[in-house]
Amino acid sequence: MSRCSIGEMGGQVAARPRELTPDRSARHLFGAKMRAHRERANMSLGQLKDVVMVSTSHLSRIETADAMPPPDLPRRLDAAFGTDGIFQELYRLARREIHPDQFRRRMELEAQARLIEEYAGQIVPGLVQTEDYARALFEKFDPKATLNEIEELVTARMSRQALLSADPPPDVSLILDEAVLRRSFGGPAVMRAQLARLVDLTLTPTTVVQVLPFEHGGHALVGGTLTLMTLAKGAQVAYEESISTGTLLEDLATVSARRRAYDLLRACALSPSDTANFIRSLMEAPSDEHHS
């Protein structure tokens, strides 16, 4: 329920505003400043909505840092509050910020997504990893981790995959660079089982897997991992991931640019049936053709 004035609630007692944490990040500071200036102007969220043309619910989520401000909002807030560019400056910081809670927020959005599209350049995406592949991956990532720590990570990874059997499950589309299939983790048996799972997922009612062969050459997404998520009401977000950091992107122009890059790769990738044949050929090849 959004935090509304008594008038907006039709005479009901207003919900107590959630405590803000402006020192947590630039995004949180943006929301806190927005609430402070709104209250200083004696404006409800509903009244501010009429000025900046953003819904009351969205404004409420921006104040609590649960949503990214749309690109035009900072300029409108500066005009509404006479703040001489303060909100535009905060927005420039917030949109580039890597938040400590971004992976958690990514998981929350992933659980809500009706369509998940991912490009992977080096490793099999977590949503479709086998347990043994995930274990081998975590062991390589942190050789000093204890057995219990590794098993906790594997359990978390496997529990994340529960959304694939949700009712209804999201549609999932994966583009895998050829390197993903040739870079072995855990040895031949583990890798063969992982490849077999990918074959099973190449074309089902809810999953599509395509391989981008080496012969395609360079492209805009090389060197990283990109996930595009389409939520129930059509909103789209993107998540870029490197070795140890991730960045959640919600700005419409940025997400659109990433989607364009993804769509170009999909057009150049092998079809699902050709992908299945390609993966099977790797499974049948001598194990020394894979590199650990």
Outline the fold blueprint.
Blueprint (H helix, E strand, L loop, with lengths): L25 H15 L4 H8 L3 H8 L9 H9 L4 H9 L7 H11 L2 E6 L10 H11 L5 H14 L10 E7 H5 L5 H14 L5 E6 L12 E6 L5 E6 L4 E4 L2 H17 L3 H13 L8
Parallel strand pairs: 1-2, 2-3
Antiparallel strand pairs: 1-4, 4-5, 5-6
Q: What series of H and E elements makes up the topology?
A: HHHHHHEHHEHHEEEEHH
Q: What's the overall geometry?
A: elongated
Number of domains: 2
The counted number of beta strands is: 6
Q: Which percent range fits the helix content? A: 40-55%
Which CATH first-tier class of the largest domain would you pick? Alpha Beta
**Relative strand content:** 5-15%
Derived from helix and strand composition plus strand pairing, the structural class reads alpha/beta
Query: Mean of residue pLDDT?
Result: 86
Task: Count up the helices.
Answer: 12
Radius of gyration: 23 Å
Low-confidence stretches: 1-14
Q: What fold name stands as the CATH topology of the largest domain? A: Endonuclease, Chain A
In the CATH classification, which architecture of the largest domain applies? 2-Layer Sandwich
Output the strand order for the largest sheet.
Answer: 3-2-1-4-5-6
Report the end-to-end length measured between terminal Cα atoms: 52 Å
* Biggest pleated sheet: 6 strands, mixed
Q: Please, could you describe this protein's structure?
A:
A six-stranded mixed beta sheet has the order 3-2-1-4-5-6, sandwiched between helices. It has two domains: 26-94, lambda repressor-like DNA-binding domains (434 Repressor (Amino-terminal Domain), Orthogonal Bundle), CATH 1.10.260.40; 102-289, Endonuclease, Chain A (2-Layer Sandwich), CATH 3.30.870. It is an alpha/beta fold and 292 residues long. It starts with 25 loop residues before the first helix and ends in an 8-residue tail after the last helix. It has helices at residues 26-40, 45-52, 56-63, 73-81, 86-94, 102-112, 131-141, 147-160, 178-182, 188-201, 252-268, 272-284; strands at 115-120, 171-177, 207-212, 225-230, 236-241, 246-249. Residues 1-14 have low confidence and may be disordered. The protein is built from twelve helices and six strands. Helices cover 46% and strands 12% of the residues. Residues 33-88 form the HTH cro/C1-type domain. It comes from Streptomyces melanosporofaciens. InterPro entries: Cro/C1-type_HTH, DUF5753, Lambda_DNA-bd_dom_sf. This is Helix-turn-helix domain-containing protein. GO terms for molecular function: DNA binding.
